[in-house]
Design brief:
The structure is a homodimer of 444-residue chains. Chain A folds into two domains: 7-133, Roll (SH3 type barrels); 141-439, Fumarylacetoacetate hydrolase, domain 2 (Alpha-Beta Complex), CATH 3.90.850.10. Helices cover 18% and strands 26% of the residues of chain A. In chain A, the strands form seven sheets. In chain A, strands 6, 7, 8, 13, 14, 16, 17 and 22 form an eight-stranded mixed beta sheet that branches. By secondary structure, the first copy, chain A, is an alpha+beta fold. Chain A has helices spanning 59-64, 77-83, 89-94, 96-110, 117-121, 148-158, 253-259, 308-313, 327-332, 351-359, 387-390, and strands at residues 34-39, 47-52, 55-58, 124-126, 130-133, 141-144, 174-177, 182-184, 187-190, 193-196, 205-208, 212-213, 216-222, 241-248, 251-252, 273-275, 280-281, 289-290, 315-316, 319-325, 337-343, 370-372, 398-399, 405-406, 414-421, 429-439. The interface between A and B is large, with 67 and 67 residues. Chains A, B: Pathway: Amino-acid degradation; L-phenylalanine degradation; acetoacetate and fumarate from L-phenylalanine: step 6/6. Chains A, B: Its EC number is 3.7.1.2. Chains A, B: This is fumarylacetoacetase. Chains A, B: Its cofactor is Mg(2+); Ca(2+). Chains A, B: Residues 30-135 form the Fumarylacetoacetase N-terminal domain.
Chain lengths: 444, 444
């Protein structure tokens, strides 16, 4: 699938929602990400919304006032049902031509000078007055492991003699995660209880995990799926992807080290995973695509993972940031402090390769399924996407600017991930943020 | 939770459905398992049914003629909605007192002499005229690894120097599986394509898997779940289990060997998993419970996995059988041939321990979630639940009675799993069967 720019990407576009035109706004008219929302505390059903500046356009309300009249892809009962649903699954399942037509229609009606400005003004809710739910019903969740820098750094800690396994450069390694415990930004979760085996003792002990960590990831929402027994070719894979969000794959490292062999992580991960409410479409990210290549010294991808468009534009230039706000910072009213800054461009495998690999054996994906990219650590140590890496396995505490230190997370810590694509002189395509807070362990 | 017998377990009970009273019938009146079914080829919505002899009682139809009047647990809109649904999730979510009341009501109206015999006769469909769907919407699927005999035998093949890992006797090892590719008995699937690395070559190759295998497992359907952040204590775990079914965890061993480190099996398993249509309730299995104990030489379970009822009756005496029907047998009209016979009593971990372990970190389970028991190999080599074990890693071909041999599965092979609980002089509590057929690989 070739990445193409169209009138929705025009850098000069401005919205009649003035906040969308401000410098460094995450949600300019060139972005138009999707979420499900409702008025905070209203207990009403959730509705699909589109971010514009600091507002949310209520999509079913806009449809009801005929904002999308005149687009053949945006007519009929299926579209109306999808727009009026409480999750994005229906819209995801309608496919790329519908997503693209909707983006074009939204871009036009939200532009300065739109005849519908007066009508649509009544369909806005300030984001400050909204609360969010998971954007989709997530049938299955798969987590990949696509940063070679993360895999190497973590491998050194878990297997000092054998950090990067022989399959890594051939196989986009992934595993199935737990869908039921995925929550939306703002999720709070208790420090998990479980088994760990400290190296100094003979037998495992039961209690709260001591080595609590985050993982800086992107989430990939599947749009149209594939039938069981069929595969999605790598060159068609992106037409099956609805968009990207931020994802924090919370991890209890001490539980992980004890349980993960031979079948992979389980209780060390499945107590909580948090994603951002906003899904940024691939079309919005089209100007921020990069060529993908594999170093000549490394194995080239097998044919089912290779292709012209993979090479031409398989990567994404998305900045990814981790911030920490400790209880002391909250008390002092101090803003969250940056722990690291990385970029999705460092990923060893592309989104299209993840989708093609996942389905090459006939495994079926459904609209709303979620793939995690794996921790996106960059090549430099300060670009690491987890505390495990930043503290070298807990040996080198992080010094915070208020005098505190962290080795792993402490109770009450809030971790915030942010992401954005940006070029000089262009609007910023932002992901907003995903925040999550570690609560103390439950009493046993 | 203590296992108790009641009037529904009476060995003398006979049904007015005469086929239920025949020796070795899987579905006597003491069983009463649940499925969702419809008349074959009817394209009608699926309905909940209860097996009795060679018939299916249409549960919504029975409810509509007031078969369950007089039971307070079986009144009201929630119950009616659950009975009239196209999956068992609603009924599963209603909880053990409702399941138990329904079992009692069904036992009474299906007994010889029931005043409702005439009315309910019209609510029967012969199983031979039915087709089945998955009994529940499976939100999340987790596969355990509870046979120490399987873990040791497989460990020897994958890690000759380190067969049983140090965590095995402490942790009920499990991992997340793929829910989307689970199908009901009769599932046909193509030999999966993917990467393998034969030991004789330097680089992996892409193509059809060569070492196709089955795994003999039980499936455990969760009834009422738990809220995220809470745990299900081991002594209450069984009240959260709706029942058991048969499960075949198809496996591509050559893909598994190449991909499984460090995050576990992925494409080697997620192309298909097949379960039986019938779910046998824990209450039906109450007479077949066994004491569970841990050899004194082994570590005793940590307190969160231990309890009086675990010790008193944690195990199940369920016979598990694997049969193979090759294309040559089908052509010759020969019945499927037994490959092995095992028993769930050999499981190193109990169902209650699996549930307690899965939730001890706060992970939430939902009604309809499925747990796999892991391959149930017994202590003797001929009790092995996979070809990998029976052929010692593909080195020792199996000799079939028609002169054929098998190392791994060949295209067109059908594998059938059966299960039953039985005591001399008592009716048999059967699971029916789960069959699945390997089709040739798709053309690339």
């Amino acid at each position: 699938m070739t990445v193409q720019l169209n009138e929705t990407h025009d850098l000069q576009l401005r919205s009649w929602v003035q906040s969308a035109n401000q410098l460094n706004c995450d949600f300019p008219i060139q972005n138009l990400p999707f979420a499900v929302f409702r008025r905070k505390g209203s207990h009403q059903p959730y509705r699909i919304g589109v971010a514009i500046g600091d507002q949310i356009l209520d999509l079913p309300a806009a449809h009801a006032v005929h904002a999308f009249a005149g687009y053949t892809e945006l007519q009929g009962g299926h579209f109306t049902a999808a727009v009026n649903a409480q999750t994005l699954n229906g819209l995801m399942g309608l496919g790329a031509p519908v997503w693209s037509a909707l983006r074009l229609a939204l871009s036009r009606v939200l532009r300065e000078g739109s005849a519908l400005q007066g009508t649509l003004h009544a369909c806005l809710l300030p984001q400050a007055q909204a609360e969010y739910a998971l954007p989709a019903h997530i049938g299955d969740y798969t987590d990949f492991y696509t940063s070679i820098h993360h895999a190497t750094a973590v491998g050194k800690l878990f297997r000092p003699d054998n950090p990067l396994l022989p399959n890594y450069k051939w196989v986009p390694i992934g595993y199935h995660g737990r869908a039921s415990s995925i929550g939306v930004s703002g999720q709070e979760f208790h420090r998990p209880l479980g088994q760990t085996k400290p190296p100094t003792v003979e037998e495992p002990v039961f209690g709260p995990a001591k080595r609590m960590d985050y993982e800086l990831e992107l989430g990939i929402f599947i749009g149209q799926g594939n039938a069981l027994g069929t595969a999605i070719p790598v060159e068609q894979a992106e037409s099956h992807v609805f968009g990207l969000c931020l994802l924090n794959d919370w991890s209890a490292r001490d539980m992980q080290a004890w349980e993960y062999q031979p079948l992979g992580p389980f209780l060390a991960k499945n107590f909580a995973t948090t994603i951002s409410p906003w899904i940024v479409t691939l079309e919005a990210l089209a100007p921020y695509r990069l060529a993908w290549h594999r170093d000549a010294a490394d194995p080239q991808p097998l044919p089912y993972l290779d292709g012209e468009s993979v090479r031409a534009s398989g990567s994404f230039d998305i900045q990814l940031e981790v911030l920490l706000q400790t209880p002391a910072m909250k008390t002092a009213g101090t803003a969250a402090e940056r722990l690291s800054l990385s970029n999705f461009r460092h990923s060893y495998w592309t989104v299209s390769q993840m989708v093609a690999h996942h389905t090459v054996n006939g495994c079926n994906l459904h609209a709303g399924d979620l793939l995690g990219s794996g921790t996106q650590s960059g090549p430099a140590p300060e670009e690491a996407g987890s505390l495990l890496e930043l503290t070298e396995g807990g040996k080198k505490p992080l010094q915070l600017s208020n005098g505190e230190q962290r080795v792993f997370m402490e109770d009450g810590d809030t971790v915030i991930l942010r992401g954005w694509a940006h070029k000089e002189g262009a609007p910023r395509i932002g992901f907003g943020e995903v925040a999550g807070t570690l609560l103390p362990a439950r009493q046993i």
